[in-house]
Amino acid sequence: MGNKIVYEENDIEIARQKFLEFVETITGLCEPSEIEKMWLDNQDVCKLLNISKRTLQYLRSTGKLPFSMVGNKCFYKVKDIDTIILTDKIKIR
User: Fold this and answer.
1) Is the pTM for the entire model greater than 0.70?
2) To 10 degrees, the CA torsion angle through 36, 41, 42, 45?
3) How many CA atoms lie within 13 A of 82 on its CB side?
4) CB under 8 Å to 57, separation ≥6 — which residues?
5) Which residues contact 66 (CB under 8 A, 6 or more apart)?
6) What is the 3-state secondary structure (H, E, C) of the chain?
7) Which positions ≥6 away from 48 have C-beta within 8 Å?
8) Radius of gyration of the chain (CA)
9) Which tens digits make up the pLDDT trace of 60-90?
10) Which long-range contacts (C-beta less than 8 Å, at least 24 apart) are formed by 30-38?
11) I need a surface site. Which of 5, 26, 42, 59 has the fewest CB within 10 A?
């Protein structure tokens, strides 16, 4: 017949704990980090990228830098700033 596998109760609990740790790790990797949740305003972005307000306006109007408006103020996600630097859409002086 077939072979029987016998598990101790403790073995099952250890496997369960390891699985829960694995799920927690994967969930943490899938959730945005605190830095990705951050938003910057025009002044912050100009300082960070060492660009003028006019250059920032150009990046917005050409669609190279996504932004959101709150009232009449623009805000930018940190991850979008990072992307624009990494994809070489802008040269940092």
Assistant:
1) no
2) -30
3) 8
4) none
5) 76, 77, 80
6) CCCCCCCCHHHHHHHHHHHHHHHHHHHHHHCCCHHHHCEEEHHHHHHHHCCCHHHHHHHHHCCCCCCEEECCEEEEEHHHHHHHHHCCCCCCC
7) 40, 81
8) 24
9) 999 999 999 999 999 999 989 988 888 766 6
10) 32/79, 35/78, 35/79, 36/77, 36/78, 36/79, 38/77, 38/78
11) 5
CA dihedral in degrees (45, 48, 53, 56; nearest 10)? -60
Quote the tokens at residue 28. Answer: 């943490």
Partners of 69 in the β-ladder? 74
Res 54: pLDDT:
96
